[in-house]
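Problem statement: downstream parser choked on a complex file, so we are re-checking the raw output for the calcium ion run. The parser issue turned out to be on our end (a line-ending mismatch), but while we're here, posting the original submission so the record is complete.
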Amino acid sequence: MTATAAARAAPAKATAPATPPAPAPAPAPGAAARAAAATRPPPGSDALAPVPAALAATLRLTKVMSGLRRPVLVTAAPGEPGRLYVVEQAGAIRVFEGGVVRKERFLDLIGKVSTSNEQGLLGLAFHPRYADNRKLYVHYTDRAGDTRIVEYRANSARTQVEPASARELLAVDQPYANHNGGHLAFGPDGKLYTGLGDGGSAGDPKGSGQSRRTFLGKLLRLDVDGVGAGSVGAGSAGSVGAGGKGGVGAGSAGGAGGKGRPAAELVHWGLRNPWRFAFDSQTGDLFIGDVGQSRWESVHVVGGGDPRSHNFGWNIAEGNHCYNARTCDRRGLTPPIAEYSHDEGCSITGGVVYRGKALPELAGAYFYADYCTSLLRSFRFTRDPGDTAAGSGQRTGWARDHWDWRAALDRRAVLSQISSFGTDSDGELYLVSLTGTVWKLERQPAQTGN
Ligand SMILES: [Ca+2]
């Protein structure tokens, strides 16, 4: 999210790639048809358009919480309808229920986390079987600024976390204070996914995005239910050598596996700062909002069940564009599905796919925003039917119904510093502002005029 102007100082020219596309591999039976399909977009356009007026007129944003301290997340726990958890960056998790934010903290890590602009308590996810096992996961930067992912268990009443239940799953050294990623979400495979930025500074000076020897600049996953000890190096088919040769992890505090720790697998790479990502609860599609450096903010999408490891290009490319060079070799890099330039924002806040009950006309719409300008948009992802067998480096699908919401939902321009999106147990959509406010997307009350 909050990359500073200083962090963006490195100049980069946005230039159309001069590199020709990679030569096609020898076709397998049926591959020609798939390749043809892969180059043919589905009906419709990916062009940005205002949300249809008839739809916009039925919706509104309603303020449901205020007075929070730098909130960065709202989420719900399985089996707890009517309750939301709010993460405050300084290290508190608070409960929202019955229209009020409870005074007592569900978890208090204040004093254990670092507090510069992009540091702190950054992520929270509940175990899919939380209703039975009361396990939850947090992602924070510790007092030294290094990344920690820790499992906790709630008390039997689920009113507070038991501090003594802490089990550290992953620790990664951070070379700089910014670009820490921080999100946590369980995937359709039951594994815990997290994103780490390139480590920080500007321009990825350590080359983390393109290095397979660091967890930085990656999307990772952990099998929190697996036996920790002995799983080092196990990896799995499709993992990018994470832990496999002991390469990754050797250079990271804690690294992959270790006593009581699950091995972390590299899933996707070439990311700069995947501050927020989300899975579509219906399709398993993965949406990653990757914060750009100087010119371009990107949304990457990987179809549910796609077994490949995608390289999204940083710091060879920034979105669809060469970074810091007129030409670059973008072969093997998977392009974003949507992007916008710094003429329209400065730091993307990846959102969620709407699968709620109240607004069925929004089913499948992925929302995202910009932290700096409160740009607010959505699109639907159409998976490329040919995108199954080939390697990383081709378009995974297409954006459709790409809508600009700001004029419709923020008529008085009150949205600012959008830090996150979230959903409640019904799948209804919330926007979180770092200024302390949480908004809910709702149906306008029926007009009862005379
Ligand atoms: Ca960092």
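For whoever reads this later: Residues 174, 176-180, 199-200 surround calcium ion (CB under 6 Å).
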